[in-house]
Design a protein that fits this description.
The chain is an alpha/beta fold. It folds into two domains: about 160 residues, 3-Layer(aba) Sandwich (Rossmann fold); about 230 residues, Dihydrodipicolinate Reductase, domain 2, CATH 3.30.360.10. Strands 7, 8, 9, 10, 11, 12, 13, 14, 15 and 16 form a ten-stranded mixed beta sheet that branches. A hairpin with a 3-residue loop joins strand 13 and strand 14. Helix 2 crosses helix 3 and helix 7 packs antiparallel against helix 11. The chain is globular, with a radius of gyration of 25 Å.
């Protein structure tokens, strides 16, 4: 009997490095220039620079990669380093490597709507070693209001004529179908589809990427992944802290929208409702919670409700996909059996587990709920999962768009939700109040039950890593 010893972090990155560098489209010896447009902003400071440092530290980037920051602010590389330092998570032993990373960094200030600034930026790149032949990656860590000017100026003045060019676009990709289509049309007038990378960091998370293998790599799931066996699918995104959103309750759409109010018995922020925030307009109908029910009209999923739940100021932090299967026919156990569920926990504590019935241990013959559990921290104890941004930025270097949002996918998402969003904006109905730290409005649970989801609330998965 052989045992598999978990790979160390360096071995994991070694395997990944080999996999990447064996790719025909990935040339380690090529010069690459990574542009951070919006280098002075929070996203750059908290996510982009740290991610590039981690990739550089672990030897995953091509040997000759240079980083060029661009923003309106009058900054220096030293100032950028100082503002990023606490997010870099660098140890004392990595000081030399960190200095090597920042020696590859430069910064140019300029205006986003000024062609001359981008001419200057391009001249700077040409002065870097191999800059004229380099492949160029442009990360738009910017507000959408400047996307049009920045992308136009990149296209006119900063594209490589000898290497490839790739543009990474951050969310939001518009605010409704029309604005999204306008942005897509603008981008496609400047770049080809294979040059555009619409980044959604959730697509870089371990368990989201694992869905493909779970679905298509297992015989036990393939035959039952359809309307014959699945009663409903629930996608949940819950956060325990408060913020703002949109608002109301629409029977026509099967949608419940709510707004959190303070819990008088809570502590700290829990005592405050959304409307207690001094920056929120008095009487605002913005919602902080939504449950929507959608149906897919095709042969595989016809009639199966897809329940989307998301909200702020709820009882826990959780992002997961839950397939609830139909009841066992015959019911020889006198209604003691609960429905089977397959749960993919995206965060926190990445896991896949199947809720199933088993005989309760002992002299009794009673069924009880338990689970078959694959919790990553228990099964893969010594493996450090890459950050989602690490994964996705590596994909851009490699030219893989598998985990990025396509234009037709984006169009379909906005087509579905735009009518609802416009009705909310036009009618501004009063949202349903729910208490800070609760599960959300009870009307949302009522809706889920009405369309076929069975919530017993008697069994809760326990992370074995904490036992």
């Amino acid at each position: 009997m052989s045992t598999t010893i978990p790979l160390s972090r360096s071995e994991v990155f070694g395997e990944l490095r080999k996999e990447l560098y064996d790719d025909e489209e990935f040339h380690q010896s090529d010069v690459h220039i990574f542009f951070i447009l919006g280098a002075s902003g929070d996203l750059a400071k908290k996510k982009i620079y740290p991610t590039l440092w981690w990739l550089f530290r672990d030897g995953l980037l091509p040997e000759q990669t240079y980083f060029v920051g661009f923003a309106r602010s009058d900054l220096t590389v030293d100032a950028i380093r100082a503002s990023c330092l606490k997010y870099l998570k660098a140890t004392d032993t990595e000081a030399e490597r960190l200095s090597a990373f920042f020696s590859r960094n430069t910064y140019i200030s300029g205006k986003y709507d000024d062609e001359g600034s981008f001419v200057k930026l391009n001249s700077h790149v040409l002065s870097l070693p191999g800059g004229a032949e380099a492949n160029r990656l442009f990360y738009l860590a910017l507000p959408p209001t400047v996307y049009h000017d920045v992308t136009k100026n990149i296209s006119l003045h900063c594209m490589s004529s000898k290497g490839w060019n790739r543009v990474i676009v951050e969310k939001p990709f518009g605010h409704d179908l029309k604005s999204s289509e306008e942005l897509s049309a603008h981008l496609s007038s400047l770049f080809t589809e294979d040059q555009i990378y619409r980044i959604d960091h959730y697509l870089g998370k371990e368990m989201v990427q694992n869905l493909m293998v779970l679905r298509f790599g297992n015989r036990i799931f393939g035959p039952i992944w359809n309307r014959d066996s699945v009663a409903c699918v629930v996608l949940t995104f819950k956060e325990p802290f408060g913020t703002q959103g949109r608002g109301g309750y629409f029977n026509d759409f099967d949608v419940v929208l709510g707004q959190y109010v303070g819990d008088p018995e809570g502590e700290g922020d829990a005592k405050l409702g959304y409307l207690d925030d001094p920056t929120v307009p008095k009487g605002s109908t913005q919602a902080t919670f939504a449950t929507a029910v959608l149906y897919v009209h095709n042969e595989r999923w016809d009639g199966v409700p897809f329940i989307l739940r998301c909200g702020k100021a709820l009882n826990e932090r959780k992002a997961e996909v839950r397939l609830q299967f139909t009841d066992v026919p015959g019911d020889i156990f006198g209604k003691q059996c609960r429905r089977n569920e397959l749960v993919v926990r995206v965060q926190p504590n990445e896991a896949v587990y199947a809720k199933m019935m088993s005989k309760k241990p002992g002299v009794y013959f009673h069924p009880e709920e338990t689970e078959l559990d694959l919790t990553y921290k228990s099964r893969y104890k010594d493996v450090k999962l890459p950050d989602a941004y690490e994964r996705l930025i590596l994909d851009v270097f490699c030219g893989s768009q598998m985990h990025f949002v396509r234009s037709d996918e984006l169009r379909e998402a906005w087509r579905i939700f735009t009518p609802l969003l416009h009705q909310i904006d036009n009618e501004k109905p009063k949202p349903i109040p729910y208490k800070y730290g609760s599960r959300g409005p009870t009307e949302a649970d009522d809706l889920s039950k009405r369309v076929g989801f069975h919530y017993a609330g008697t069994y809760k998965w326990v992370n074995p890593h904490r036992l």
